[in-house]
Backbone:
């Protein structure tokens, strides 16, 4: 079976085809890892097109939904084979801030890249980030803020995460008023200027290149 | 509640800056919509925490901002000034803090009037903090009580214009925008949003009446402006954002049905449609609000304004002065030009109106739907509909007609990858059921019900 068909189904957001082809691939005894990789290739492709402004968010979303359909079928086999998402990422909008569209987009992009994403929601106090980080042991933590008056909460959150011993976890910040300079000032590991670049930034920080 | 069934302004030429059929007169004699465009200044804190410990610095910042703004307003001889105090969430959650700042602003405005004769009026805009908990609690609880308390105390202290950027329906709308699902947009704006407004605005009107001040207006900021920003970031199509803007007028209209009398709040770009329907004066913002966010409607937004705003700017130092003072100067000169055109008579004012409209509308669908001709067309579709749901559908279809016709006639540029969205949005609108109850049943099956409390929208 040619897995490029499955990749194409993800790229075009064809949920029915994605589910059907995933089942066919399983029936054809193709390794779960290879099936998963073909899904990720599809999401990477649409992510790149999104980054080049060739597609809009809804097109990304339907691709993500198609991948979800496939994952429902594939996940039990991945678990049985001991294949877990390579990275776990924690994400949330910091305390005092209720804006969540940007955070949701990053979350979607990370899920598409097969990160295990734990979304803490909005208005998340530093203690909740610390607690969740201890529970999920993420490699990446994403902090989002849209208001200038909640930007200081990013600093507080990073201070508390570091004070709690989470010194090797990579922290990425983003949001309309955020800059690289601010990221440097508050000790974040990176700044992602938009959702599309968040995958690249995360992979750069924790992937093979980082080693 | 009084529903609007016909237009207050039918001729697009009369949908013009400085004139509203129902002007509003303030205690210090500003006649908003009565032949003068007033600057409306708004400012906010630089990057800092707002808490008990920082309140002395918060107050110092606001004192510095209002003093700088009023001094410059006097130097530039503005005919009057609207000052908007849009609180930050901790100031709404703690009404005492909100009132500390309110009193600083009112005292300074009183002094400028007493000493310099500067007419000014305070627009008080508490945050809609009901969404601080998720799912939001919209009709009761401490957040709701504190928000009403701040409205009440600020009105008693002398804030004459009461406004809010209410959030009812946003729980569903964010997701609808990301999916570009026009049915869910209508559900969020015209069902959930309108129902929340019809609950919220009678309370604001009652407070306004009790203190002899004005229930001014609301805005679809968290809805249509979010769409505009997402379109600006190329995350969703501009044509979709333009349709959302048109539909959003149905939601914002509910405030006026419940007794608001204007001026509508600045960031409600849909205000031009509402002015055509209600005849009340409207605040608008555009090119001089670039300090707050980009927009593709910088000039066209001014075509029908009665106050002209900078949206908001942080108190940071620029070369000229602190930023709020600089922006006061910008909007003071903008309004001076509007008023000079008005003083030369309707023909001159009409020229300026058309230049502002024509300079924007070919370049962006969001600008085109705000042109006076478009606004009247969309407004007609809204008032001709039997209920808010059908009004949302009608507004969306009117917007699509306007955009499609202009694109076919080469009067509007639409990026190639967006053209297919015109048909797709139109088809989605045609596919929606005729009956509101059938629509609600469909939508309640589709939306994520965990994000809101159905009882708060009478949807249980």
Residues:
């Amino acid at each position: 079976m040619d897995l490029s068909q499955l990749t194409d189904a993800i790229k075009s957001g064809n949920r029915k085809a994605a589910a059907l082809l995933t089942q066919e691939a399983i029936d054809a005894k193709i390794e779960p890892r290879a099936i998963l990789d073909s899904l990720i290739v599809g999401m990477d492709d649409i992510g790149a097109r999104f980054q080049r402004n060739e597609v809009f968010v809804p097109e990304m979303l339907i691709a993500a939904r198609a991948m979800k359909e496939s994952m429902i079928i594939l996940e039990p086999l991945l678990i049985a084979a001991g294949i877990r998402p390579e990275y776990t990422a924690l994400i949330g909008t910091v305390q005092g801030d209720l804006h969540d569209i940007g955070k949701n987009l990053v979350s979607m992009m990370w899920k598409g890249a097969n990160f295990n994403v734990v979304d803490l929601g909005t208005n998340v106090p530093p203690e909740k980030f610390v607690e969740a980080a201890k529970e999920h042991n993420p490699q990446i933590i994403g902090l989002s803020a849209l208001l200038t008056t909640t930007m200081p909460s990013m600093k507080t959150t990073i201070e508390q995460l570091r004070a709690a011993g989470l010194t090797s976890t990579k922290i990425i910040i983003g949001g309309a008023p955020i800059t690289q300079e601010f990221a440097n000032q508050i000790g974040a590991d990176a700044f992602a200027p938009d959702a599309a670049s968040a995958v690249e930034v995360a992979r750069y920080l924790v992937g093979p290149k980082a080693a | 509640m009084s529903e609007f069934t016909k237009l207050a302004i039918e001729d697009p030429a009369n949908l013009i800056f400085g004139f509203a059929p129902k002007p509003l007169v303030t205690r210090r004699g500003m006649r908003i919509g009565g032949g003068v465009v007033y600057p409306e200044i708004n400012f906010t804190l630089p990057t800092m925490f707002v808490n008990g410990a920082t309140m002395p610095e918060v107050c110092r910042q606001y004192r510095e901002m209002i003093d700088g703004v009023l001094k410059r307003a006097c130097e530039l001889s503005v005919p009057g000034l609207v000052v908007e105090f849009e609180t930050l969430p901790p100031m709404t959650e703690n009404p005492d803090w909100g009132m500390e700042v309110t009193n600083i602003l009112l005292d300074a405005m009183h002094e400028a009037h007493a000493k310099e004769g500067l007419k000014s009026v305070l627009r008080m805009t508490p945050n809609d903090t009901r969404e601080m908990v998720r799912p939001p609690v919209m009709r009761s609880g401490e957040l709701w009580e504190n928000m009403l308390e701040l409205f009440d105390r600020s009105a008693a202290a002398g804030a004459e214009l009461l406004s809010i950027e209410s959030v009812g329906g946003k729980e569903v709308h964010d997701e609808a925008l990301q999916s570009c699902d026009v049915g869910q947009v209508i559900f969020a704006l015209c069902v959930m949003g309108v129902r929340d407004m019809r609950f919220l605005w009678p309370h604001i009107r009652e407070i306004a009446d009790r203190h002899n001040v004005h229930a001014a207006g609301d805005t679809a900021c968290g809805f249509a402006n979010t769409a505009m920003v997402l379109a600006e970031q190329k995350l969703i199509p501009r044509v979709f954002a333009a349709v959302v803007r048109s539909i959003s007028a149905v939601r914002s209209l509910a405030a006026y049905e419940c007794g608001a009398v204007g001026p509508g709040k600045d960031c409600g770009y849909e205000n031009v449609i509402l002015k055509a329907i209600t005849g009340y004066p409207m605040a608008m913002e555009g090119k001089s609000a670039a300090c707050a966010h980009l927009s593709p409607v910088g000039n066209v937004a001014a075509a029908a304004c009665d106050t002209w705003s900078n949206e908001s700017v942080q108190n940071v130092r620029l070369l000229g002065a602190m930023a709020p003072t600089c922006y006061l100067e910008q909007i003071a000169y903008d309004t001076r030009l509007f008023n000079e055109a008005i003083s030369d008579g309707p023909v001159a004012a009409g020229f300026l109106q058309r230049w502002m409209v024509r300079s924007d509308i070919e370049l962006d669908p969001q600008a085109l739907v705000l042109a006076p001709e478009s606004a009247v067309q969309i407004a007609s579709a809204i008032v001709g509909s039997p209920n808010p749901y059908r009004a949302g559908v009608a507004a969306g279809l009117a917007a699509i007609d306007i955009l499609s016709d202009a694109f076919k006639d080469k009067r509007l540029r639409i990026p190639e990858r967006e053209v297919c969205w015109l048909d797709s949005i139109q088809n989605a609108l045609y596919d929606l059921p005729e009956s509101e109850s059938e629509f609600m049943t469909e939508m309640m099956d589709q939306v994520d019900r965990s994000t809101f409390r159905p009882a708060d929208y009478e949807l249980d």
Notes: The domain at 4-80 of chain A is CATH 1.10.1240.10 (Methyltransferase, Methionine Synthase (B12-binding Domains); Chain A, domain 1). The interface with chain B takes residues 53-58, 61, 96, 98, 100-101, 104-105, 121-123, 147-149, 151-153, 177, 194-195 of chain A (CB under 8 Å). Chain A has nine helices and five strands.
